[in-house]
């Protein structure tokens, strides 16, 4: 389920015109390819659990890290993208994720990191978002 849920979440984010206009490098499942424009969005499946049983419906709770990544000099742009992610995902139910009924989605932890890499200094700004879904 996680691969199809990840693909559905990526498609939802990539279809938002406002997000695409600010995250000019696109929406990627971590890791993003080298050489793309910044800022860009990465999403990474952290973990998940299934609940239910006894022949009833099974609900899956999944945590994704969803964040904007940009060079440290572009932290303001990364924060703009992260704010849009909150608008799209925080405290939402009924999100249109193909193949899933979304019972709820909310940000459960912030991400605000500075990264040192061979290519330079970067920022990663966003959050951990917890989705509760049921396959349709």
Report on the structure:
The protein is of the alpha+beta class and 136 residues long. It is 25% helix and 46% strand. It has a single domain, classed as STM4215-like (2-Layer Sandwich). It contains three helices and five strands, in the order H-H-E-E-E-H-E-E. Strands 1-2-3-5-4 form a five-stranded mixed β-sheet, with helices on one face. The longest helix is centred in the middle third of the chain and has 15 residues.
Low-confidence segments, given as residue ranges, are: none
- Along the chain, the helix and strand elements come as HHEEEHEE
CATH architecture: 2-Layer Sandwich
Average pLDDT metric: 91
Let me know the number of strands: 5
What composes the largest sheet? 5 strands, mixed
Taken together, the total number of domains comes to: 1
Question: Which structural class fits the helix and strand makeup?
Answer: alpha+beta
Tell me the name of the CATH class: Alpha Beta
What characteristic shape results from the CA principal axes? elongated
Helix content: 25-40%
Share of β-strand residues: over 45%
CATH topology, by name, is STM4215-like
CA distance, first residue to last residue: 11 Å
By oligomeric state, this entry counts as single chain
Number of helices: 3
